[in-house]
Amino acid sequence: MNEPIRVVVVEDNEVFREALELLLGMRSDVEVVASVSYGNDAPAVAAELQPDVVLMDYRLPGLDGVQATRAVLEACPETAVVCLTATASLRERDALTEAGAVACLRKDEGLHSIVAAIRDAARPAAA
Asked: 3-class secondary structure for the chain?
């Protein structure tokens, strides 16, 4: 069996973060290795844990999603960033992509879509 995709969740909404951890944790193909609520914490956690994917919120205290995405990819270039946001505008989603995010999903998308984006993002790392 393949190793699970190692994921760090960066989300400031505690209820949503814990729900993601719970739902992703029930899957055998995904392992949440850490979660943080501040954008500032994301680069150090990624550098330490070397996850396959960072699931990144856009609106965060400290570094926002764009800044945190850049910092994560600088600290850990092999990691893919998938953004998950409630209300990012087209301009904000474009900024996330320009910062290096490989996908930008809405928080109200189904878990299957989120997992598919995580899988797609991790595919190059697994190859």
From this structure: CCCCEEEEEECCCHHHHHHHHHHHHCCCCEEEEEEECCHHHHHHHHHHHCCCEEEECCCCCCCCHHHHHHHHHHHCCCCEEEEEECCCCHHHHHHHHHHCCCEEEECCCCHHHHHHHHHHHHHHHHC
CA dist., res. 112 & res. 7, Å (int): 15
Burial 64-83 (b: 16+ CB within 10 A, else e): bbbbbbbbbbebbeebbbbb
Tell me the per-residue pLDDT of 10-56, one tens digit each, with 9 for 90 and over.
999 999 999 999 999 999 999 999 999 999 999 999 999 999 999 99
Whether pLDDT at 58 is above 80: yes
Alpha carbons 61 and 94: distance in angstroms, whole number: 20
